[in-house]
Amino acid sequence: MLTISLDPGEAIKAEPGAMVAQAGVQMQTKGSGGGGVGGFFKGVMKAAVGGESFFLNTFTADPSGGWVSLAPGLPGDIAWFDIQPNQPLFIQGGSFLACTTNVETDTKFQGMKGLFSGESMFFIHATTQANAGRVYYNSYGAVKAMQIQQGQTITVDTGHVVAFTNGVQYNVGKVGGMKSLAFGGEGLVMHFSGEGTVWIQTRNLGSLASNLIPFWPKGN
Fold first, then answer.
1. Is 34 left (phi over 0), alpha (psi -120 to 50) or beta?
2. What is the architecture of the domain spanning 2-208?
3. pTM of the prediction?
4. Measuring CA to CA, which residue among 134, 154, 130 is closest to residue 144?
5. pLDDT at position 169, please?
C-alpha cells in the first residue's frame, strides 16, 4: 500500500478504485486525457487500447494538509520513478497506479510487434513538459530493476515486463527454435537493448489464469 502525504493544496492523480483510505483531502474525478475535445478522445483511446481507465481521481489536500493511501488490484510491489522533462517512461497497461499532477499519460503505439508480443499493442506513455514529475506503478509479484548498458541485450518474457525508460529499445522474438516455442514452456520474449532501465515482475497473470482454468466449473 502506498501512502502519500500532501501539503496544503498539493494534489495527486490516481487510478479509480485505488483508494484505500484518506484524510484531509478532497477528491475530484476527471477524464484521463486532459481537458477539451482533444483530451476527451485521448482518454477514450487510452481506455480502449491502453488497458487503463478513462477517468482519473485527483486528491487535493485541504488547507491543513492531508494524506491518501492507494493500493493496486493485484498483490505485488509498488515502485516509483521520477520523470525529467521530455524523458518519458513507458508502462505496461494495467501497471499505472498514480502520478503527480504535472505528469501527462497517453497511449503509445508499439507497432505490429505488439500484436505478436502477447501484450497490449499500446504502452502507457508518461511524460512531463516542465519540472520533474513522479509516477507510481505496480507489479504482480515483486518488481526488479534491470540496468541495460550499451552493447548489452537482456531477454525478458513478455508477461513479466512492467516498465522501461526512454533510452531502451526492444524487439519481439523467441527463445530457441520452433520446437522450444511449442514444447519448452516458454512463449515469446522481448529482447531489450540500448541504455536505460527495464522493470520486470516475478509473477505472470497469464500463467496464473492458465493454471486456474482446469479448476473452473464446466457449464452445461
1. left
2. 4-Layer Sandwich (3.60)
3. 0.79
4. 154
5. 92
